[in-house]
């Protein structure tokens, strides 16, 4: 059997590989503390579950429009427009079976083979995978740690732009860093994209997963709404990771292309789940507030516990449910040269499972520090304390 050559360009979501290691260790009877995967162990609010049940009972179990049901498109347009201070119509919205499909459809709609696309590194690995799969040149851009958190390496971005640069993927509220742009950084990026006539994918699944302050979208800046596609998702805001419901918002001519891709790739998103999405946006929001309360408590406990370990430093972000601690001193003190051996030894000695920096892209030239990622969306506070106690004992031995 001969597999198509283009499959060689397709990557994977590397956190799932870490999940496999954790599961294999747990299957041998060991206790595992799951900090590796950004899934959630928090139940979807009951009003959303009941809305899906009612929609099924009402017969919403067949095909529906490829672009999504009008009620949900209108609800998303109103919600995102209100929260971002701009205006969207229903025609600016295409419903998707999760947030992830928006990445590939944005690239299919706007990138030609050979075009260059900027993507964050460290960052969500599916960006690079999809760019390369569809024949583009994937150009990574990095971050520098500062007193204000991680910031984009602007000079390197500016110098890497060429006449072939077509798109810029921007994840504000960033996985894995937990980074978010200052107003000044976001304004710089908007100016860059306008000057070079770049399309922007603004990946915003963590827009509402924040603990203080107010989230901001680059689409709210002058000249950006007409060149930006927003990726939105219900997964994090409403603990709906397994429901697979999201959307693309952007200029009508791009959304029409994405709707055409919907027809070709999945016909439509799940019908009754879309009605649950309407309830999520228009119904009682107390469940979403409780989700954020739980996540904030977990963040605070985890930050304190990590900072209590000798040789670990970690920035405390106000968005996402990820921490990206610098473990260089621990790594070097214990004599490691292989991040994966460091990760696996820690798993086997403590049960604590996390991702390494290399699970979010190949380290860029000039990187000298060793980082790991902790997700706290799928582990309760008492388990965080227990696991971090074991981690402290092992890393300080």
Describe the structure.
The chain has two domains: 5-43 and 287-395, Aspartate Aminotransferase, domain 1, CATH 3.90.1150.10; 47-282, Aspartate Aminotransferase, domain 2. The protein starts with 14 loop residues before the first helix and ends with a helix. β7, α7 and β8 (199-203) form a beta-alpha-beta unit. α2 runs antiparallel to α9 (271-282), α4 runs parallel beside α5 and α10 (286-307) runs parallel beside α13 (381-395). By secondary structure, the chain is α/β, with parallel strands linked by helices. Helix content is 40%, strand content 14%. The mean pLDDT is 96. The strands form four sheets. It has a seven-stranded mixed beta sheet with strand order 2-10-9-8-7-3-4, with helices on both faces. It has helices at residues 15-27, 46-57, 70-84, 100-110, 126-133, 154-160, 183-195, 252-265, 271-282, 286-307, 328-333, 339-350, 381-395; strands at 33-34, 93-96, 116-120, 137-141, 143-146, 149-152, 165-170, 199-203, 228-233, 246-249, 322-323, 352-353, 355-356, 372-375. It has 13 helices and 14 strands. The protein is globular and about 60 Å long.
Based on the model shown, name its key terms.
3-stranded antiparallel sheet, Aspartate Aminotransferase, domain 1, about 400 residues, 7-stranded mixed sheet, 13 helices, Aspartate Aminotransferase, domain 2, alpha/beta
- In round numbers, the mean pLDDT is 96
Question: What is the CATH class name of the largest domain?
Answer: Alpha Beta
Per DSSP, the total helix count is: 13
As for the number of domains, it is 2
Structural class: alpha/beta
Round the Cα radius of gyration to an integer and report it: 21 Å
The share of residues in helices is: 40-55%
Proportion in β-strands: 5-15%
Q: State the order of secondary-structure elements, H for helix, E for strand.
A: HEHHEHEHEEEHEHEEEHHHEHHEEEH
CATH superfamily of the largest domain: Type I PLP-dependent aspartate aminotransferase-like (Major domain)
Distance separating the two termini: 52 Å
Largest sheet: 7 strands, mixed
* Form type: globular
Query: What is the CATH architecture term of the largest domain?
Result: 3-Layer(aba) Sandwich
Count the beta strands.
14
The strands making up the biggest β-sheet line up spatially as 2-10-9-8-7-3-4
CATH topology of the largest domain: Aspartate Aminotransferase, domain 2
Low-confidence segments, ≥5 residues, pLDDT <50?
none
């Amino acid at each position: 059997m001969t597999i198509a050559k283009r499959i060689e360009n397709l990557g994977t979501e590397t956190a799932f590989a870490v999940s496999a290691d954790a599961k294999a260790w747990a299957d041998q009877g060991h206790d595992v503390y799951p900090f590796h995967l950004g899934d959630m162990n928090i139940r979807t609010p009951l009003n959303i579950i009941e809305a899906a049940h009612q929609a099924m009972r009402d017969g919403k179990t067949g095909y529906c429009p490829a672009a999504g049901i009008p009620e949900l498109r209108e609800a998303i347009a109103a919600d995102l427009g209100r929260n971002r201070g701009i205006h969207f119509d229903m025609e600016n919205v295409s419903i998707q079976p999760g947030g992830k499909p928006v990445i590939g459809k944005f690239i299919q709609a706007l990138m030609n083979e050979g075009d260059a696309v900027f993507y964050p590194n460290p960052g969500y690995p599916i960006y690079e995978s999809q760019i390369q799969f569809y024949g583009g040149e994937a150009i990574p851009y990095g971050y520098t740690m500062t007193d204000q958190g991680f910031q984009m390496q602007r000079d390197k971005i500016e110098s890497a732009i060429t006449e072939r640069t077509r798109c810029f993927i921007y994840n504000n509220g960033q996985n894995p860093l937990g980074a978010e742009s200052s107003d000044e950084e976001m304004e710089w990026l908007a100016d860059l994209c306008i000057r070079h006539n770049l399309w922007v994918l603004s990946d915003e699944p963590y827009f509402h997963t924040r603990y203080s302050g107010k989230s901001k979208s680059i689409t709210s800046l002058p000249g950006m709404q007409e060149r930006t596609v927003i990726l939105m998702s219900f997964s994090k805001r409403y603990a709906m990771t397994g429901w697979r419901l999201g959307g693309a918002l952007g200029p009508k001519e791009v959304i029409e292309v994405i709707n055409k891709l919907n027809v070709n790739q999945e016909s439509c998103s799940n019908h009754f789940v879309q009605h649950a999405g309407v309830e999520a946006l228009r119904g009682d929001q107390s469940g979403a507030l409780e989700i954020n309360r739980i996540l904030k408590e977990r963040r605070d406990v985890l930050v304190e516990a990590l900072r209590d370990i000798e040789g670990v430093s970690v920035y405390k972000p106000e968005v996402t449910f990820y921490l990206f601690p610098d473990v260089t001193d621990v790594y070097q003190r214990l004599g490691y040269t292989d991040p994966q051996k460091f990760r696996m030894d820690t798993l086997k000695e403590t049960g604590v499972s996390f991702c390494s920096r290399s699970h979010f892209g190949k380290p860029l030239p000039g990187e000298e520090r060793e980082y790991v990622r902790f997700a706290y969306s799928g582990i309760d506070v008492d388990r965080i304390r227990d696991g971090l106690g074991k981690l402290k004992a092992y890393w300080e031995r």
